[in-house]
Specification:
With about 375 residues, the chain is α/β, with parallel strands linked by helices. It contains 15 helices and 13 strands. The protein has helices at about 20-30, 45-50, 65-70, 75-80, 125-130, 135-155, 170-180, 220-230, 240-245, 260-270, 285-290, 305, 320-330, 340-345, 350-370; strands at about 5-10, 35, 55, 90-95, 110-115, 160-165, 180-185, 205-210, 230-235, 250-255, 270-275, 295-300, 315. Strands 3-2-1-4-5-6-7 form a seven-stranded parallel beta sheet, with helices on both faces. The chain has a six-stranded parallel beta sheet with strand order 10-9-8-11-12-13, with helices on both faces. Helix 8 packs across helix 13 (about 320-330) and helix 11 crosses helix 14.
Length: about 375
C-alpha cells in the first residue's frame, strides 16, 4: 500500500471528541494523506493534526460559523459531494454525519468508519426535534428538511465499499437504515494517558464527561442529583448548556471543556462515572475505567460493550431520574477492584485500535485489487 494515494475525510474539526481521536490514529496510519473536512476551528486539535494538510469545504467561509455551524446542516451533503477526490486510490472516511457520502473515483476503494448514522435524522430525531423544542416556524421547516437528509443519507451509503462500525449497536443501525453489513472495530482509548492514581482518593463526587446535546440525557442526571444532593461534576460544552444549567442545584457544577491532564485528575478522584443516555460507544466511559473508576450507565447501546456489570460498573434500565437513583443507591453498597476496572479498559487501547484498523484496511485493499 506504500504507493497508494490516500485521502482521509472527517465531518468537521471543532473539538477533540471520539471521532477526532479516531481520525488522529488514521492520520498516523496514513501520514501523507490530506484531510478533507467540512469545516474546522483552528487550534481545536492536537498539534500533529493541526500541522496536516487540511482542506475545508465552502462551509468554512459562511458567516457566524463558530457559534452556529450546526444550523448549516442542510448544506452539508452538498459540501461533502463537492470534494474532488478523483486523484485518490483509497478514501477512508470517519463519519457521523455526511463524510461517508463523498464521491470517490469509480475505481477507488472507500472504507467508512461510522460513529453512527446521522443521529438527528434517525434514532435520535425526536430527542433533537420534538415539537416542544421547536418554534412555530421550525415545526414546519425541520421535518421536510430532515426527510431530505434521510433520503440522501440512505442513498449515499451505496458509495461506500466497506463499513466499519464503532460498536455492535452502531452496526445494527447501519443494517437497519442502510441495509448494509458492517464490521466492528472499537475506537481507541488513550490508556497510557488515563491511569489510576497512586493513592486512593477521597471520591467525594460523581462525574459526567459529555457533549451537552439532547440525546446525552444530561437533564435526567441533573434531575436525579438535584434530589440526591450528592455532588455531580459535568465536563463538556454544547447547545444545551443554558437549558441544563437553569434547573441545576448547587451540588451540580458545570466545568466546561477541560484539558486532558485536568480531566484525568477528575476521573481519578470520582466515585463513579455516570452515563445517563444511550451512547453509540462512549470513549469517556473507558477513559474513566482506565483510571480505575467504575461506571453507572444506562443499559443500552455501546455501554453494553464497554461496561462489565458487577465488575467494572452497573446498569440501570429505566431512563428516568428514579431509575438512575436506584442504581446509585445500589452503587453505595458495592466495591470495585481498581485493577480489574483498569484491566478491562486496556483491551480498548490506542495501539490495539491502530493495529486492527491498519490490518483491516490492508486486507480490504488486497481483496479489492484481486477483483479489479
Amino acid at each position: 500500500m506504500e504507493n497508494l494515494k490516500v485521502a482521509l475525510v472527517h465531518d468537521w474539526l471543532t473539538g477533540r471528541r471520539g471521532g477526532e481521536k479516531v481520525l488522529e490514529v488514521l492520520a498516523e496510519i496514513f501520514p501523507e494523506a490530506p484531510i478533507y473536512t467540512l469545516l474546522r476551528f483552528p487550534g481545536s486539535q492536537i498539534e500533529a493534526l493541526e500541522k496536516r494538510d487540511i482542506r475545508t469545504s465552502f462551509v468554512q467561509g459562511l458567516p457566524f460559523l463558530k457559534k452556529h455551524y450546526r444550523r448549516y446542516l442542510p448544506l452539508f451533503p452538498l459540501a461533502a459531494e463537492q470534494f474532488d477526490l478523483q486523484d485518490y486510490d483509497l478514501v477512508v472516511s470517519s463519519s457521523h454525519c455526511t463524510a461517508k457520502g463523498v464521491i470517490p473515483r469509480a475505481d477507488a476503494l472507500h472504507v467508512s468508519y461510522v460513529h453512527s448514522p446521522m443521529r438527528y435524522a434517525w434514532n435520535q430525531y425526536h430527542a433533537y426535534f420534538s415539537p416542544r423544542r421547536l418554534s412555530y416556524f421550525s415545526r414546519r421547516l425541520v421535518p421536510p428538511l430532515i426527510h431530505y437528509l434521510r433520503l440522501w443519507d440512505q442513498s449515499s451509503s451505496a458509495r461506500v465499499d466497506h463499513f466499519v462500525a464503532n460498536s455492535a449497536a452502531v452496526a445494527r443501525r447501519i443494517e437497519k437504515y442502510y441495509r448494509r453489513s458492517a464490521d466492528v472495530i472499537h475506537p481507541p482509548v488513550d490508556t497510557e494517558m488515563f491511569t489510576p492514581p497512586d493513592a486512593e482518593p477521597e471520591r467525594a463526587y460523581d462525574l459526567i464527561v459529555s457533549a451537552l446535546v439532547p440525546y446525552k440525557k444530561i437533564d435526567l442526571a441533573v434531575a436525579a442529583y438535584n434530589r440526591l444532593g450528592w455532588p455531580l461534576k459535568i465536563v463538556g460544552e454544547g447547545p444545551e448548556y443554558k437549558r441544563l444549567r437553569r434547573p441545576a442545584g448547587p451540588n451540580v457544577r458545570f466545568l466546561g471543556p477541560l484539558a486532558a491532564d485536568d480531566l484525568r485528575g477528575l476521573y481519578r478522584e470520582a466515585r463513579a462515572f455516570i452515563l445517563p443516555g444511550e451512547e453509540d460507544f462512549g470513549i469517556a466511559v473507558l477513559e474513566a475505567q482506565a483510571c480505575g473508576t467504575p461506571v453507572v450507565a444506562y443499559g443500552r447501546g455501546g455501554a453494553r460493550e464497554t461496561v462489565l456489570e458487577g465488575k467494572t460498573g452497573l446498569f440501570f434500565d429505566e431512563p428516568t431520574p428514579a431509575g438512575l437513583l436506584a442504581a446509585l443507591d445500589k452503587l453505595g453498597g458495592m466495591e470495585f477492584n481498581k485493577s480489574t476496572v483498569r484491566s478491562h479498559a486496556l483491551g480498548f487501547s490506542r495501539d490495539i485500535f491502530k493495529e486492527k484498523m491498519a490490518s483491516y484496511i490492508r486486507r480490504r485493499w488486497r481483496e479489492f485489487k484481486e477483483t479489479t
